[in-house]
Amino acid sequence: MTLHNHEAVGSTKERTFKQLVLTATRNSAFRYLLFGGLSFLVDFGLLVLFREAFRWNLALASATAFLLSFAFSFTVQKLFAFKSGHRTHVSLVRYAILVAANTIATVIIVQLLSLTGLGYGGAKVVSTAATTLWNYFLYRHWVFGGKRPPLTKPGVEDNRKDFVNNV
Question: Which among 8, 79, 107, 150 is placed 20 to 30 Å from 64, CA to CA?
Fold first, then answer.
């Protein structure tokens, strides 16, 4: 009997975990952070590669890593995080404007904070945290226009829920 109760508890925990994962993946903020984290790993890895292996100047290494990871980030954010149906060329122009602003902000933050005890690695973490915060709202409401492609056939109601905006 105990074995059967244990199996029932295990299956309940498994269902609860699956429900949690489904709920999280339906949330644009969760997906944004997940794919943003992946983009950060690309960005940070390239920064270290350019700085340590290639011995590039810090400003050049930081800007290049940032720009390359932003191309990667645009793709995964548009397709997977926000599932945007917004016109790609419009999003790309808006994204390019944001890239320019974020590049300048990143270089300034990394340069200034690298002079402190943080070093360039800690400075990069701080700059990424700042850009992550403002980019979520700009991506959601401006870059990708808040539009999502339909998951259903025409005439069938789309019941997806976005828990960040309660829509």
Answer: 79
Give the tokens for residue 16. 């609860």
The pLDDT tens digits of the residues spanning 118-166 come to 999 999 999 989 998 999 999 999 999 855 555 555 555 545 544 444 4
In terms of C-beta distances under 8 Å and separation of at least 24 residues, what long-range contacts does 100-108 make, across chains too? 102/66, 102/70, 102/131, 102/135, 103/63, 103/66, 103/67, 103/70, 105/130, 105/131, 106/62, 106/63, 106/66, 106/131, 107/59, 107/62, 107/63, 107/66
CB 84 within 8 A of CB 148: yes
Provide the whole-model pTM.
0.62
Q: Other C-beta atoms within 10 Å of 120: how many?
A: 18
Lookup: tokens for 164 = 């960040």
Q: How far apart are CA 36 and CA 146, in angstroms?
A: 18
* CA dist., res. 36 & res. 4, Å (int): 42
Angle between helix 58-76 and helix 28-48 axes, rounded to 10 deg: 150
